[in-house]
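Mods, move this if it's the wrong board.
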Amino acid sequence: MTKAALLESYGQPDDKESGISPLVIKAKEGSRGAFNLLIGLFHEDIFRMVYYRIRSRMDSEDLTQDIFIQAFKNIAQLKTIAHFKSWLYRIAINRVRDFYRKKRLRSLIGLFSENEGIDVNDIYDSGKNNPDPLENEIRKDFWHQFEIALECLSRMEKEVFLLRFLDQLGIKEISQALFKSESTVKTHLYRALVKLRKNAALQNFFN
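Not the wrong board. Structure tokens:
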């Protein structure tokens, strides 16, 4: 069944921001069809979130698949339907952290070599070639400067900033995903913005 047909079968409009709760309810009841639709709605966002953090397309694809498998296995435990998005991001954050813990462990015992560098330009074009070489260079340079600027942030400041501006989660959703109060999230976000605004290379980003 196509995405449009599946949405129609549940009486839902074809957009991500509306009609999610009935699908989550169906998925909690064990409906694979409803959960597959949820995957379709959130797959690109979760993949982008993971890919930016680990920079390996193959590993990102594997992790994204694992995140949704874990979500399907545990969705019955989701207590608040409206918190599905933040709950899904919480699973993703934990899987990324687990990925790095395993990576460090393998490095210590000599069974894992560092990944080759991957062009951050791929983050938004999903591997499609951009016909404008100049635009590619400008974008590549921006992301290079952006990554350097992020080094001035603490781990939590960086996580909150990325979730807010790269992954486009709201303050409440970030709070739920990180198990932090909204005031704590706002404090970390404010500190991150203050630090980043001082970086000359990112002035156009904030203006």
